[in-house]
Amino acid sequence: MAGTLWRSRGRLSCGLVSILTTAGIVIVLIWESTGFFREVSVWEFLTGTQWTPLFKPQHFGILPLVAGSFLVAVGASLIALPVGLASAIYLAEYAPSRARQTLKPILEMLAGIPTVVYGYFALTFITPIIRKLFPETGVFNAASAAIVVGVMIIPMVASLSEDALRAVPRGLREASYALGATKFETVTRVAVPAALSGIVASFILAISRAIGETMAVTLAAGATPKLTANPLESIQTMTAYIVQVSLGDTPFGTIEYKTIFFDSRPRWRRFAGEVFLWACFTATSLAVILLAILLIDILRQGAGRLSVDFLTHFPSRFPERAGIKSALFGTMWVVGFTGLFSFPLGVGTAIYLEEYAPRNWLTRVIEINIANLAGVPSIVYGVLGLAVFVRAMALGRSVLAGAATLALLILPIVIISAQEAIRAVPPSIREAGFGVGATKWQTLQHLVLPIAFPGILTGMILALSRAIGETAPLIMIGALTFIAFTPNTPLDEFTVLPIQIFNWAARPQAGFHELAAAGIIVLLVALLSMNALAIVLRNRLRKEL
Amino acid sequence: MREHLSVGQGVRLLVLSLMVGLSGGCGAGGREAVRLHIDGSSTVYPITEAVVEQFMAERSGVQVAVGVSGTGGGFKKFCAGEAEIADASRRMKASELERCHENGVDPVEFPVALDGLSVVVNPANDFVSCLTVDELKRIWESGSTINSWSQLRADWPDVGISLFGPGTDSGSFDYFTENVVGEEDASRPDFAASEDDNVLVHGVSGHRGALGYFGHAYYVESSDMLKLVSVDAGSGCVLPTAETIADGTYEPLTRPLFVYVDRLALEHEEVLYFIRFYMENAGEFASDVGYVPFPPEHYEEILSEIG
């Protein structure tokens, strides 16, 4: 029977994909670190308090790095989790639909700004403010890094949590109103708890990213470069812990049965609702204002350099003649292939894990591991890409090698968000499918996936946005800096926008700094138009449940 | 030149011929362009970039791609045969040379320009104007306990020293530690390091007690935010300027910048042509981007040597 054949093939291929990806990543990461542990004892690594691998005398104590990561991650979470969640609540529950349709893409755009840009933003904007308030602060400080990383991960929390909130069936809200609950009570006691699994997933992704962030923290906190070049998995361990803790008490599908307790004082109820709405609105505004400051700062510097010539010229040693053509083409090639690789792999894995994988320890290990991979610093993927794609598979410093590396990097984001989207489809839809005699695969194909698709697409957009702005792993695999030609085949060399921007920003002459700002504007426009396309698709596909 | 080629060299020659060669036969109308790969130091990069840009404008049919992986990273790729030319802000080490030879790569060294690592303090610092090499060493050596300017000279105020320097992967760090501290890579770890010299400029200009060092080009571009310190190597205080760097009196922080080429690649017409072009223009482009050229004889000598 055709249905049976489809079903078994679908199951088989998806299963293989997830296992291969996970195993492949883990094996290479372990492989990369064994050489290190042959030279340095695990005990010294874990308990040493000095980290100076490139200095003489050498010390390999990881504690300073752990403490630093922890400080930045906690600080960033304190900013991003409340602001992001409040923005999500405002967008999903309160904002008029037109405001939502404008604000959400803007927030998602924040995710695509290269992390290098956030680093300079911290250094030139946030740090001076901190130093004015607390004159004792150094130019490089953890507070500035924490704030800027917090700003950086707000969109991830806001966008994914908003999707989770919107996926809560309307029936739940109506039931709550029918019991006499106010909007505030419905939101905080019904919608948010019901969406908790998605919200927690967005928290995990965001915190993981905060811990794994390299470029922005290096610039803002003035960390030693060793931190970026050789993070050696301390961070992985921390992430593993976070993920286990968070996944451990993520309840979903049970909230419908919770009793709802209402406060019976009407005036207090209305007042609390007002305060809550304003808090959420303020949070959203805060996110938008921060983006606006960042954008104005960039526009002010770069607008003068924008022209048709800038887009159609190759780089030059004369700022007035330099253009961004090779980087623009390189980015399009690389991101195109990254999407081609990561979409089927990621969505396939998510389908397998959600629908077919048996609920046993192995599946759980795979899930924890995928979430864990989301927190691996991007530069580690560069090490992996260099070993596997550039050297072992002999792809060289080609578009294919770069795209394959970035595809692995964004895979956890694609998988986790796709899983969330699939999970958010109400059981009644599946039951209806089975009720009319559809097979599991038919139900998936015709009912579940179409409903989950907008959510999957959001995850994909965010993931590709991240790929566009990613610098560290591509520098690691050796993407080039000065290229006055564009790729003709996927096996050609390339450069990408963030690398070109980074290169210009690091030059001493002010003219190149303006070029860097202009490059960022181009990057943002490219990102916006890509997002706009996907968002139009998403809005068209999204059905009110 | 060598009489016998090892197997590795034979293979490399073959690959090179496939990669670079055959172009003569194709002529100017051939679709396949010759492609050259350069990688290495970010300090040398601005000169190489200028040369490449000008070269490609004059010689169509040759495509040159430049990467920036730092001096060490560039040598790694160069010795693995992944790049025909390496940019370097320090000499190749013996261990790197060995690796090159293992892979049948025979490096030829070309000094292209001079740079004076510049020591800078905050403009508000009105007491430091000259430091001896020994004082620099006492500040930067590993295990140093000097945390205040008053510890260095009794008549200086008790202002905390905050240190800024190039990242440990850079040739500048290698050069400074070797020539000031006395042992390569021996440095105190508690300084703010960045591969991006603009970040260092920011750091020094933001702290009253700051001390930092980086390539001269970065000082020249940001001189209004920094105060240059002269260095005393035993024969008086010398400020790094185009003159003192060119005549070598700015000691010991004047350093040559290099490009390295595989001797086998150099036998190729296009590569040779590129290097000739580099040597003819290096002096002019070096001063354009803030470095100091060698005297013209230096370049002429190299040109007559490579023919």
Structure description:
The complex is a heterodimer of chains A (545) and B (307). Chain A contains 23 helices and 1 strand. Chain A has helices at 2-39, 42-47, 63-94, 97-110, 115-133, 142-166, 170-178, 183-194, 196-212, 215-221, 226-229, 234-248, 266-302, 308-312, 325-356, 361-373, 378-392, 399-423, 427-435, 440-469, 472-477, 497-505, 510-541, and one strand at 482-483. The longest helix of chain A has 38 residues, at 2-39. Chain B is α/β, with parallel strands linked by helices and 307 residues long. Chain B contains 13 helices and 12 strands. Chain B has helices at 7-19, 23-26, 45-58, 70-79, 94-102, 133-140, 171-181, 197-206, 216-221, 242-246, 263-266, 269-288, 296-306, and strands at 34-40, 62-68, 85-88, 107-116, 118-121, 130-132, 162-166, 192-194, 210-214, 227-232, 237-238, 254-262. In chain B, helix 4 (70-79) runs parallel beside helix 5 (94-102). Chains A and B meet through helix 5 and strand 1 of A and helix 3, strand 2, strand 8, helix 8 and helix 9 of B.
Q: What class would the helix/strand composition of chain A place it in?
A: mainly alpha
Question: How many helices of chain A does DSSP assign?
Answer: 23
Low-confidence stretches of chain A: 223-264
Q: From the structure provided, what is the oligomeric state, counting identical versus distinct chains?
A: heterodimer
Low-pLDDT stretches of chain B are 1-31
Global morphology of chain A: globular
**Helix and strand string of chain B, N-terminal first?**
HHEHEHEHEEEHEHEHEHEEHEHHH
Main sheet specs of chain A: none
* Radius of gyration of chain A, taken over Cα atoms and rounded to an integer in Å: 24 Å
Envelope shape of chain B: elongated
Question: What about the largest sheet of chain B?
Answer: 7 strands, mixed
- Estimated helix fraction of chain B: 40-55%
What structural class do you assign from the helix and strand content of chain B? alpha/beta
Query: Count of helices of chain B?
Result: 13
- Rg of chain B, Å, rounded: 21 Å
Could you tell me the strand content of chain A as a percent range?
A: under 5%
